[in-house]
Design goal:
The chain is α/β, with parallel strands linked by helices and about 525 residues long. The protein is about 35% helix and about 20% strand.
């Protein structure tokens, strides 16, 4: 007996090949594709979805998600699953939440970057990668893949201090990488603007990457912005050098030309093309809006975080440290960013406002207002700004070595609009309206290409025996209404989303099903 038959739709299978008309049959969590007459299939199906006039494709795989903690408290994951996302990669930007030696260290780490990843619904009660992955099995709406951040690796062996690692500490960190990957991690991520992972030098990252590469992992990197003084491509040259020396596949995340217009899109894209011509396995992802988004604390100097979140809180309240931070704080951090995720009642009036406007209301200088609010909100403020050159964004979205990823932060009243619209805007604008991409290629960038990048063997393509992660959408009406001023709007035209054979979105509404599971390296089909 077939549990579910999707009939009459145009199957765009995720490979980049043209679509074809066929029925997709789901039995348990596995699919098969059937061309030709489907009369017998319909008679033997417990349920039939008529997909006439719709596209049937694999579920979208988001290679840059900040949902690892928040999804535990909001397991239906509406902002993402309603876009067609069925698998998320968490642990990116060097900020993963396992392994740790003690829960105290884990809770300190969650606190430091709470403006980027939020909090779980209850105090975190895991320590190992295996224990954390177990939290997702059958309890959330989408699948979760995990990549190991270099920050917890450094905390494990070096601590929170800004200093080079010794040879013995690097050997210990390599052992941590091996164990995490044996428990299911897909590689190593870095966030070289986020301490304490930012304190790692190139040699340290090469050593860790060698270990990850030997186990089939990738290097997923938010590069080091401090290198920009050496040239606009210098941060990404370091990433390529790590791949060159370690042999690890390199993936440049949220890759784009900055809003300042520095350099050229041709330079950015040429760097990836040159690396591949050299024999380095280099790819990238990009988001589809011109807005950046992160934690406010990213703009504060590394020395203020040397020792952990307590050190930062102390610096924010010390007169001498505040003056020093003011001198070092980039003006763009104070004039071009909107703040969100205020939790204290007296601060909620500021959600979605520019820092300068908040300061005017409070009768303060912008830096002083920012520092006081960070103390009041216990560091957990997020920011949205104009971070990408909108005029060249299309070139990154359409490039053959690039894929789509949201980099979505899932809290606050005014999150980045890509949190609700990253994937449907590809279908509505980059494909249908502006025709920068053919539909099959766009779907490949959101399905089989990210699956291939990670190494997931049984998702991302509609092929016999693959897992039944499926999206059904109307190509003529799919659209997002999410904007910076009104970001929390669900897309239209995405009618059904199926995860592991279970319908999670039905005619645009959430069914409440929680069929997601952790997808572990080495055991991807389980």
């Amino acid at each position: 007996m077939i549990d579910l038959l999707i009939a009459g739709g145009l199957v765009v299978d995720g490979t980049g090949s043209p679509g074809f008309y066929a029925a997709v049959a789901v039995t348990g969590d596995t699919l098969t594709v059937h061309r030709g007459d489907d009369s017998d299939l319909r008679r033997n199906a417990a349920r039939v979805i008529d997909a006439a006039g719709h596209v049937v494709c694999p579920g979208f795989i988001d290679l840059h998600s900040h949902a690892g903690l928040t999804i535990l408290g909001e397991p239906h994951h509406d902002p993402k699953v309603r876009q067609g996302v069925t698998t998320e990669l968490v642990g990116i930007d060097g900020i993963s939440h396992a392994p740790f030696k003690s829960r105290e260290e884990l809770h300190r780490y969650i606190w430091l970057d709470s403006g980027l990843n939020g909090y779980p619904p209850l105090p975190a009660d895991w320590l190992t990668v295996a224990e954390m992955l177990g939290k997702y099995d059958g309890t959330v709406a989408v699948n979760i893949a995990y990549i190991l951040g270099n920050s917890p690796v450094r905390i494990w062996s070096v601590g929170w201090e800004q200093r080079p690692a010794s040879a013995a500490e690097i050997a210990d960190m390599q052992a941590v990488v091996r164990e995490a990957m044996a428990e299911g991690a897909w590689g190593l991520s870095t966030g070289l603007d986020y301490p304490p992972g930012a304190y790692a030098d190139t040699d340290e990252l090469v050593a860790l990457s060698e270990t990850a590469a030997a186990m089939g992992g990738i290097y997923h990197t938010h590069t080091r912005a401090s290198l920009l003084s050496q040239g606009y491509l210098a941060p990404w040259h370091e990433a390529v050098e790590i791949g060159r020396r370690s042999g690890i596949p390199v993936h440049l995340t949220h890759y784009r030309q900055s809003a300042s217009g520095t350099g050229s899109r041709l330079g950015h894209l040429g760097l990836v093309e040159d690396a591949r011509a050299e024999g380095i396995d280099c790819t990238f992802d990009c988001y589809t809006y011109p807005y950046s988004g992160t934690t406010v604390t990213i703009g504060l100097p590394h020395w203020a975080k040397d020792g952990g979140p307590e050190r930062l809180m102390a610096a924010l309240q010390d007169a001498d440290d505040r003056e020093r931070m003011k001198r070092e704080l980039s003006p763009s951090r104070l004039h071009n960013n909107w703040l969100t995720n205020f939790t204290r009642p007296e601060n909620r009036q500021y959600d979605g406002m520019l820092i300068t406007d908040i300061a005017a209301l409070r009768g303060q200088e912008p830096a002083d207002a920012l520092f006081d609010l960070l103390v009041s909100e216990n560091l957990g403020i997020s920011t949205v700004g104009l971070g990408t050159n909108a005029q060249t964004l299309y070139a990154f979205v359409a490039h053959p070595y690039g894929m789509i990823a949201s980099d979505a932060i899932l809290f606050g009243e005014y999150p980045n609009p890509r949190t609700y619209g990253c994937f449907p805007v590809v279908l509505a604008e980059f494909v249908r309206a502006e025709q920068h991409l053919r539909l099959p290629e766009a779907i490949r960038k959101m399905t089989s290409f990210p699956a291939q990048r990670l190494g997931i063997p049984d998702r991302g393509i509609l092929r016999d025996g693959f897992k039944a992660d499926i999206v059904i959408f109307n190509p003529d009406t799919v659209k997002t209404h999410a904007t910076r001023e009104n970001p929390k709007q669900y897309p239209v035209g995405i009618e059904y989303v199926i995860v592991n054979g279970q319908v999670v979105i039905e005619q645009g509404d959430n069914t409440g099903a929680l069929p997601g599971r952790a997808i572990r390296r080495g055991r991807a089909a389980t």
